[in-house]
Amino acid sequence: MQIEEVKSTGKEQRVATHSHIRGLGLKPEGTAEAVAAGFVGQETAREAAGIVVDLIKAKRFAGRAVLIAGAPGSGKSAIAYAISQELGPRVPFCPMTGSEVYSSEVKKTEVLMENFRRAISLRVKETKEVYEGEVTEITPEETENPLGGYGKTISHVVVGLKTAKGTKQLRLDPSIYESLLKEKVSVGDVIYIEANTGSVKRVGRSDAFATEYDLEADEYVPLPKGDVHKKREVIQDVTLHDLDVANAKPQGGQDIVSMMSQLMKPRKTEITDKMRQEINKAVNKYIEQGTAELVPGVLFIDEVHMLDIECFTYLNRALESNISPIVVLASNRGICTIRGTEDLRAPHGIPRDLLDRMLIVRTAPYTQSETQIILDIRAKTEGLKVAQDALEYAAEVGVKSSLRYAIQLLTPANVMAQIHGRDEIHKEDMLETGDLFFDAKKSVAIVQATESLFL
Ligand SMILES: Nc1ncnc2c1ncn2[C@@H]1O[C@H](COP(=O)(O)OP(=O)(O)OP(=O)(O)O)[C@@H](O)[C@H]1O
Ligand SMILES: [Mg+2]
Asked: pLDDT at position 435, please?
C-alpha cells in the first residue's frame, strides 16, 4: 500500500447558505449563548450537538448515530455544519444528501460505502530522515549514453542546500533530478528531500528572495534552521477513500494510448471490495504498530428519508464495523412510508430498529424575535442594508411562511431597492418582492383555487 503522495479527494464545500455560521456558539462549560458564532436560539439542540462534538473529540463515539429532527428551516443543516466547524479541519466531515445514492451507474451501497470511507481518516506520524534547505545550485552532470547512440544521459545531479547553520552539496540519483523538475524547483527555493525514498517536496520560496517581484502568488518561507541533514516529524492525514483512490489508479505506461484509457475509465468502478479489504488490513497493521492513528470523523446524511430500506439495512451493518465514523442524519418528515417498502410506515421514514440505536436531537420552531435576529445576521453577511421596519416585516413573513423564504426574499428585495435608487431595503421593497415571488403556502392555495386551469 502506498501512503506517500496521496492526493486529497475531499469534497469541495460550498455552503453559502450557512456561511454566517461559524460554530455552535457554546460557552466553555457547554451551555449555549443566546446569540453566538452566528447561531441564534435553538439552545437545547446546540448543547446536545456540543456534547456530540466532545464525544467525537474524545474518540468515544465511533459507530453511533445522531438524528436531528425538526421542521423545515429550523436549522438542522446549520447544526450539522456548525459541528463540522467545531471539529476543525483535521477531522474529516463528509456531507451528502440521501438522494445522492440513486445513480444508474453505481450501486447504492457503493455510494454509501465511499462516503463512509471519506469520513474516516488515518493520521500517519513518521520521523523521516531528510535533507532540507534553500537550493543554492542544481547541476545535472552528463555522461555519454552507455547504450551508444548520440545524445547524452544524466549520470547524477549535484544539489547545493543551505540552512542557517551551514551548507551541503549532495550528489544525487538522476531520478531525483526528474522530481526536482516536476516540482519546478529552482535556485532560491526551500525544499526537502526524503533520504529513503528520494521524493522531493518544495516548501516555498526562501525569504531572502521576497522582494524579487511585486506581484507574486508564491509562498515565502524562512531559511530552515539546524543542519541540512536531519530527522523531521511528518504528520499526514489521509482519508480511507483517498487511500482507495490512490491504490486504484491504473498503473499504465506513459504512452498516449494508456494515458487515454486512464481518462476514459470511470474511477468508481475500479475500487473493489477486495482492494478495500487489503487496505483495511494494512491500515490495521499500521495502527497496531503505532505508526498510525485512526481519526473517525462525521458522515452527515441530509434528507435521510430519501434513503430506501436497502440503504438502511446497510447503514445498520456499517455502524457495527470497528472502523466506522459518527453518522449524523437529518430529516424534516413526520411519520411516512419507508422508501422501498410497500406500506411500512415509520417516524421520519426510518425503520424502527435503526431509529432505536440513534440519539435524537430535536430542533424547535423560532419565535419572531429570533427570526428577526437571524435575518439581521444573514443580511449583514450578504452585505445588505435593511431598514428597521423592513426587518420587522421580514421576521413576520418568516414566522408566517418560513424562515428560508424570508431569507431568500432579501436579495431580490435589494435589487428592488436599487431599482428605486436606494441602497437600503425598505418595507415597500419587501412587500413588492413578496408579490413577485410566492412562498409555498400561497402557491399551494393558488393551485387549489384554480385547479381547473392546470393540466
Ligand atoms: N438558529 C439559527 N441561527 C442562525 N441561522 C440559522 C438558524 N437556523 C437556521 N438558520 C439559517 O436558516 C436557513 C435555513 O436553515 P437550515 O437549512 O439549517 O434548515 P433545515 O432545518 O436544514 O431545513 P430543511 O428541513 O428544509 O432541510 C439557513 O440559511 C441557516 O443557516
Ligand atoms: Mg436541511
From this structure: 85
CA dihedral 438, 440, 445, 447 (to 10 degrees): 80
pLDDT at res. 14:
41
* Spatial separation of the C-alpha atoms in residues 431 and 314, rounded to whole Å: 49
> Which ligand 1 atom is the nearest neighbour of the CA of 18?
31
What is the chain's Cα-based Rg?
28
CA of residue 20 relative to chain centroid, distance: 17
Say yes or no: CB of residue 124 within 6 Å of ligand 1.
no
Q: Please indicate whether residue 78, judged by its CB atom, sits closer than 6 Å to ligand 1.
A: yes
Alpha carbon of 305 to ligand 1 centroid (Å):
18
| 240 and 323 co-located in one domain | no
Give the ligand whose atoms come closest to the C-alpha of residue 334: 1
Question: Ligand 1 within 6 A of 21 CB?
Answer: yes
Cell of 159: 544539489
Query: pLDDT value at position 22?
Result: 87
| Cα of 386 from ligand 2 centre, angstroms | 26
Ligand 1 centroid distance, CA of 70 (Å):
11
Count of helices and strands (H, E) across the chain? 14, 17
Nine-digit cell at 21?
A: 455560521
Residues 284 and 211 in one domain: yes
Nearby residues of 312 by Cβ (< 8 Å), 6 or more positions away: 338, 350, 351, 354
Domain end among 339, 363, 387? 363
Q: Are 407 and 375 in contact (CB under 8 A)?
A: yes
Report the distance separating Cα 220 and Cα 210, nearest Å. 7
Q: What is the rounded CA–CA span in Å between residue 391 and residue 406?
A: 10
Quote the CA–CA distance of 14 and 4 in Å, as a whole number: 28
CB 325 within 8 A of CB 119: yes
Mutate to test the pocket of ligand 1, among 13, 14, 20, 21 (most ligand atoms within 8 A of CB): 21
Task: Classify residue 363 by burial, with Cβ atoms within 10 Å: 0-12, 13-18, 19+.
Answer: buried
159/106 same-domain check: no
Condensed to tens digits (0 to 9), the pLDDT of residues 282-334 reads 888 888 888 888 888 899 999 999 999 999 999 988 888 877 888 999 999 88
Contact 376, 35 (CB under 8 A): no
Which helix (H) or strand (E) covers residue 127, if one does? strand 120-144
Q: What is the CATH number of the domain that holds 264?
A: 2.40.50.360
